[in-house]
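Ticket #4471: structure export looks truncated?
Reporter: QA, pipeline team
Priority: medium

Steps to reproduce: submit the single chain below to the structure queue and open the exported record.
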Amino acid sequence: MPDPAASSSPLDLPVATIWGVGPERTFQLGRLDIHTIGDLLLHGPRRHEDRRHSKKIAELEPGEAATTRGKVVAAGLKRWAKSSRSVVEVIVEDDSGRLYLRWWNLPFMEKVFAPGDELFIYGKVGAKKPKSIDHPETEVIEAGDELFIHINRITPIYPLTEGLPQRSVRSAMWRALEFVHGKVPDEKRAILGGSWCDRETALRKLHFPEVPGDDEEGRRRLAMDEFLDLQLQIQRRRLKLEQNSQPLPCAGDNSLIRPYLARLKFQLTGAQTRVLREIRTDLGGKVPMRRLLQGDVGSGKTVVAACAALMAIESGYNVLLMAPTEILAEQHARTFRNGFEPLGIPVSLQTGSIKTAADAQRVMGELAFGGGSKPRNKAHGAVVIGTHALVQEGFGMEKIGLVIIDEQHKFGVAQREALLRKGRYPHLLVMTATPIPRTLGLTLYGDLDVSVLDELPAGRGRIRTFVRDGKSLPKVWEFIRQKLKEGRQAYIVYSRLEEEDTAAGVKAVAKEAEKLEPILSPWRVGMVHGRMKSEEKDAVMEAFRENRIQVLLATSVIEVGVDVPNSTVMVIENAEQFGLAQLHQLRGRIGRGGHDSFCILVANSKTAESLQRLKIMESTTDGFRIAEEDLMLRGPGDLIGQQQSGLPKLRFGDLLMDRVLLEEARRIASDHLRNESGRTT
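Actual output as written to the record:
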């Protein structure tokens, strides 16, 4: 065991330093990732029980969650013949009546209780005759000097692991707070000011509140520390960029944008025009642009990205555009070539299919000599579009003025930084069609300025969404046949490629293709998925774009980057397998032309949660509302991928509920760094 005197803080000492925490408890706490006293104190309760006012058994009402106490008078195990079913039943009583406690199919619970044990019981009464609670939380009341920690107070209830009782964690927590009294570091107190309690007080209020509301006051202070750490890190990174970088002059002169816009068959929306003004200001500003462009599916982000690229190219700089999938990269390459090569601007593609240094040199050679229908204007720059292959060591490019990253949430933060290091402080435009809730934006993209495309182009048909069960499929296929007769096209999406789960009714695209071809005949059915070779995917997608294939069966690989305006029907089977944001992205593949479109979500699951999620899709096409609902239902880690996003693990901060707290942390961090910068200059 380390010498306590050798540690700079008692929080860094092993948890075994606490009296009563022996080798067995140390091992059990280690399974909860608790190794030091500091780890223990940051192991927050999942709730509290007000044991000052526990109810008599006679006062308990059906459907009510409450705390009571009583003495065990009988306990037994019942098994069903010729079945694995069992129930442990414990009868407790107080001076007002009896209560039956039941644990189904947990036979080991029989050994936990003995007649005469005094229990605290928390749970919801399910039946009145006899009055009973299924699977309650219980705690044996033991006499001792520390009884005041466990009863007649607002008592913490902690997450546990096998063999670790509440009583032991609670006692260790109390002793830990006594051990560190007066020695808890509090670096943030000076930044926060006197309206916040100190960190030690926050820990004591969190674990052992004296009055209702103390625990929330403690949690908010600890959450503020987490948010403040995060915002200081984000804003220091932005401040360092501003102090150390020399911005590249990339605002352009309109020599290429004018002819590019003249060739478009539509007018820019007011939102696109506004955002382009913001981008032009950034590209000619005093610091490199760091801007996030949010726009719902179909709002015209690609045109904005193309115009931003033209500004840099007009200024003599090259542009990199990174996309998460080959399908999306190829779609961008096709779009940019159509618009740029008539202007003499070469556009090249770099994906995982280009693997060797010789291939990379060929790409760079194409850029050097031009690859379009007009000879390259050497006074201007060029564009390279690719996937993660752009961040590989074998790829390099000179005079990078602008980096564009599409669908940023599909990449890790490290990949974004690696791509920026290909140049010398190039401007950065990050795009996403997945609307980002405000709290996530402040954490994931807190160092970026934000532009929002909140207006859809004119002339788009409306999208109607319907939730159906598997029994409706014959009618669905007939509806698709009707739309095909009208000359339209359709997508049918599955969550799996080959492995079906027949028990759960989860289908796979490879198996369903064989069944659907005769049903949808004489129209041609094609299939695309992530395991296909690039050339095969290209061939299928090109045939679908040209209406040589009328129905495209796919996995979620078509979630982004597919733009076929004639496709007006999308069927998503096993829709309950997808998140709301992903369903919204998939739905965004239709409704891109002038005809009304139809999205049919086929769900086998009948759970209330899955139906609630799908009903949200049925009720709105507003991506921002859907994103907020998705965050509420799934949480930030599931929504965007904790590790992929770089989002820190928050113990006390809640991105669902703490938006005001997070915004306050951002303001405090900004004021502090501004004052700090003023003192050092």
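Status: closed, not a bug. The export was complete when the record was re-opened. Leaving a note from the reviewer for reference: The longest helix spans residues 214-244.
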